Amino acid sequence: MAGKTLDPDHKLTLFIRDALRFISAFITPISQSAPQIYISSLSFAPEQSLVATKFRSRFPNTIVVTEGKPSQWPMTVFTAEHHKDRVRHLVFSPDESTFASISTRKNICVCDSETGHCISGPFELTCDEGLYTACFSPDGKHILLELDTCAVVVDIETGEEQFWIEGWYFVFIQDGRRIASIDWIDEDKAGDQTIVVKLWDASNGALISNRLFEVNDVADTRFSPDGRLLAVARMSESVIELWSVEDGKDPRRFSYPPGYLKSLYFSPTSDSLMAVC
């Protein structure tokens, strides 16, 4: 089946999903003793489990559960308990095969999205700054952690901190070779909020452009998830501008109803923008 795309409702796809649920549910007894697959796991699997239905009849001389067995797998797929303190952030990789959990002490665990098992980590950041947000690189091999006044890029396999970048509000651009950031400045000291957009090399943190473009009279900003666009809400007029992070040229302008703008949100595909007033 290599290289083929299966329909989500294909019998083989459904069986693979059920097998993953089976493994996730009984991983503890199975990992300690392989015969538990036949001795207990098949017996305690839900009645409508595809794996149990196919193989249960082949092992008749095992435990039989007569009451209380569920008919379907529970809605909770797994419970991941890899941190000793509270979890502050969760972020999925672009293909959703893994996710990173980050605790209040800035310990990072990278886990399998099907089973919840920790596949690398926990890693601990060396910086004492507070964590603001996090995102994966487009290839899923690094995590960019945005702190109070800077950001750090971490290798998800080794936990090695690759480099640090100064500034606020960071995002990987879609090609994965660059990182965009925003600096807020107040050049005239009169409350006129101005932002400067910078570009960084995603392989080593070197500064590519110190002033790709700047925008004044800014009320709020938001990068699109793919890093291609920057939405800017103007402070003195009810207008949102969409700037290209590739070249900072020819922004598109959209009006929104008069009133205080609370926030901006892009859809996960970066195709839509919501303005909350």
Give the helices and strands, then pairings.
Layout: H1 11-32, H2 36-44, H3 50-55, E1 87-92, E2 98-103, E3 107-112, E4 118-124, E5 131-136, E6 142-147, E7 150-155, E8 161-166, E9 168-172, E10 178-185, E11 194-201, E12 207-215, E13 218-223, E14 229-234, E15 239-244, E16 252-255, E17 263-266, E18 273-276
Antiparallel strand pairs: 1-2, 2-3, 3-4, 5-6, 6-7, 7-8, 9-10, 10-11, 11-12, 13-14, 14-15, 15-16, 17-18
Description:
- The protein is mainly β.
- Among the domains are: 7-77, no CATH class; 80-166, Beta Barrel (Thrombin, subunit H).
- The chain contains three helices and 18 strands.
- Strands 1-2-3-4 form a four-stranded antiparallel β-sheet, with no helix packed on it. It has a four-stranded antiparallel β-sheet with strand order 5-6-7-8, with no helix packed on it.
- It is elongated.
- The N and C termini lie far apart (50 Å).
- The model has no long low-confidence stretch (mean pLDDT 84).
